[in-house]
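User: Hey, quick favor. My workstation is busy. Could you predict this chain's structure for me?
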Amino acid sequence: MSNTYQIYLISDSTGETLDRIFLAIKAQFKNIDYKVHSYSFTRTENQILKILSDAESYSNSVIFYTIVDNDLAKYLSNTSNSKKIPCFGILGDLISSFSKLLNQKASNLPSAQHVLDDEYYKRIEAIQFTMNHDDGNSIKEIDKSDIILLGVSRTSKTPTSIYLANKGFKTSNIPLINNNSIPMILKENPKISCVIGLNTEPERLVDLRKNRMSSLKETENKTYTDIDKIKKEVEEAKNTFRKYKWPMIDVTRKSVEETAASVIKIYEIYKSND
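Assistant: No problem, here it is.
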């Protein structure tokens, strides 16, 4: 008997929500072997039967699903139970309970969250803006940024900016190389936008920069990876943030998601005081 769990992720939409939920679930359980089988846009009983037929061929299949059509969700659950395949609905009870709370019937439309509404186009605009203002490439219209991130090289500025853009925030990021790196518009008006400094421990930066050089197959730049120079860089960056009274976030032990969450909290405080 195989000890590898066959995880079936079945969604009636893109499957993005289910993927993220499963990532959160599996993070709670260490040392398990699993193989993921993803099925998106599953909207008929025939599709379900084909998936379950495949799942039956393994001894330890597990099904997770997000299907908003109640009849189809029940069909999947009942058929899985009859085949003795563990089956877990992720959204069903939540939608039902929320529907009762609101005293409003749910639409039960697949992909309802992907409607091309104003919020969707706002997010696309934010992504375009952020890509144009990545890594200090453009300071044009930087005053239209919702958020401006500053930091020395390898402090997660770009991935955090992209993550924030996907949340609808127009984000610019600027690498701190020296005092001239800061655009004059920011020096003259430090509160023109929600400006946040990112920093990290020097020892961590050494590792990140060495890995960067290795991945690019470049000869190691001694200055770029020198611990003493990096310590000076980090300290000068902190002094700059203090000078302009910009809040700082230490990203040393933070994932991009955690850093972004901290940024959003600071942004909300900034807007409430605006």
